[in-house]
Design brief:
The chain has about 190 residues and is mainly β. It is built from one helix and twelve strands. Strands 1, 2, 3, 4, 5, 6, 7, 8, 9, 10, 11 and 12 form a twelve-stranded antiparallel β-sheet that branches. A hairpin with a 5-residue loop joins β9 and β10.
């Protein structure tokens, strides 16, 4: 692949100038660490389909790694735009997508996106105790199913904040549980 533009309008994804090797077999496809540009910033995109997926439960696995601003990472997420100016800077991000295999029991496979960063390089202009300077690390892990409407959302912000909720949908209001401080239960594993 050489300087290819990869886009999916449905999911509002655009990766410019993709460069790297692709592998094919009669049971799958893989692209390892394609050099891409996301909103002009360099990143590495990996895709594994079929036999190339590392987890046998997944039909598709993809990841994007790069030093990106929060405005790029969360672009298009409804309802969050007013908060984006409160997170200036750039941090190393790892964004992962896992799509399970469809089965007779579950004909619509689960699609889960997980975003992870130590937020070093990004400031948080929020009230205490969530305020942080750009030079300080504060791990974040954010997971949500696709499509987002009505899905389960898990958010962990270091040992400061743990949130688990269900996002609003047409006939369903937003609901969630927020805990400050250390929490015994691993919220991310209860999906």
């Amino acid at each position: 692949l050489h300087d290819a533009d990869l886009a999916d309008h449905h999911w509002r994804l655009a990766f410019a100038q993709a460069n790297g090797r692709l592998r094919f077999s009669n049971r799958g496809f893989a692209a390892d660490d394609l050099a891409v540009r996301v909103e002009g910033d360099p990143a590495a995109l990996s895709i594994a389909i079929g036999e190339f997926a590392t987890n046998a439960e997944h039909q598709i696995e993809a990841s994007l790694r790069g030093e990106l601003p929060v405005t790029t990472v969360l672009a298009g997420v409804e309802g969050i735009a007013p908060l984006l100016p409160r997170a200036p800077g750039r941090s190393e991000w790892n964004i992962e997508l896992a799509v399970d295999h469809a089965t007779d029991a579950v004909p619509v496979p689960r699609k889960r996106v997980t975003l992870m960063s130590d937020l070093r390089g990004t400031a948080l202009d929020l009230p205490a105790p969530l305020r942080k300077d750009a030079d300080r690390a504060l791990p974040i892990r954010f997971g949500v199913d696709l499509p987002v409407a009505g899905s389960v959302l898990d958010l962990e912000l270091g040992r400061l904040l743990h949130f688990r909720g269900r996002l609003p949908a047409a006939q369903q209001a937003f609901a969630g549980s927020l805990a400050f401080g250390s929490v015994e239960t691993d919220l991310a594993s209860r999906t």
